[in-house]
Amino acid sequence: MRTDEHDPxxxxxxxxxxxxxxxxxxxxxxxxRSALAATAWIAGNGQTIGQRLTGLAHAAALSPARGLLHAxxxxxxxxxxxxxxxGLSEDRIHILAEEYVDDFLRPSLREDALDRxxxxxxTHDRIVLLAETIxxxxxxxxxxxxxxxxxxxxHLEFRNGRATGRLLEPLVGGAATxxxxxxxxxxxxxxxxxxxxxxxxxxxxxxxxxxxxxxxxAPDPLLHRTATTxxxxxxxxxx
Length: 239
What we know:
It is a single chain. The chain is of the alpha/beta class. It has one domain: HAD superfamily/HAD-like (Rossmann fold). The chain is about 45% helix and about 15% strand. It is built from ten helices and eight strands. It has helices spanning about 35-45, 50-60, 65-70, 75-80, 90-110, 110-125, 135-140, 175-190, 205-210, 220-230, and strands at about 20-25, 125-135, 150-155, 155-160, 160-165, 195-200, 215, 235. The strands form two sheets. It has a six-stranded parallel β-sheet. A two-stranded antiparallel ribbon has the order 4-5.
C-alpha cells in the first residue's frame, strides 16, 4: 500500500569530537634540567677514569654554546650530546639513570607545571611526553608523571652490551621533534588543528608551529620573541 508519509527517522548521536592530543616537553616545561645535564652526569660516573674524563670533557665543550646550537640545529646537537655516553655498559647506564632521577631530576619537577599537566588531562584525550633525554632516565621518572599516555624519547644504540654513542631513529630534538609529533598525531588520528603543544626552548619552534594550539611555557629569549611575533600564548611558571 502506498503512503505519502515518511518513515520516522531515528535520531543519530552527534559525532564524537576530534581526538584532542597534547604534546608536553620534559626539558624546560616539566623540569629546568636539560638532556645535556643528564648525559654529563651519567658520563661523569662511567666505569673507568678514562670514560669519566672523556664524557665530562665532551659535555663541558658543548655546554656553553648548546642553547644557540640547539636553536640552529637541534637534531645534530642532540646527537652530539649523547655521543658522550659511548663505551658505557647498558647495565651501568640504567643504574646511573635511576640515581640521576632520584638525586636530581625528580626533585627538579615543577609543581605548577605538574598542575598544568593535570589540567591538560581534563581537556585532552591523550597526553604525550616529548623528551630529548634517553629512555632509561625517562622510564625511571614515569611513575611521577601520572596522566601521561605515550612517551616519545631518545634511545641509545647498543652493541655487545655497550653504548655506541649513537641514537636510534626516530629522534627527539629540533626539527625532528616536530616531524615525530606530526607522525604520532597522524597515527592516533588526531587533527593537528585540535592538537596542543607546550614547549620552552627555541629549538621547539617548529613543534609549536605545527599544532593548532601552541603554548610557550617559561620560554627562553629566542622563543619568547618568536611567540610574541606569532601571537602564541606565553605562560610563566612560579618557580
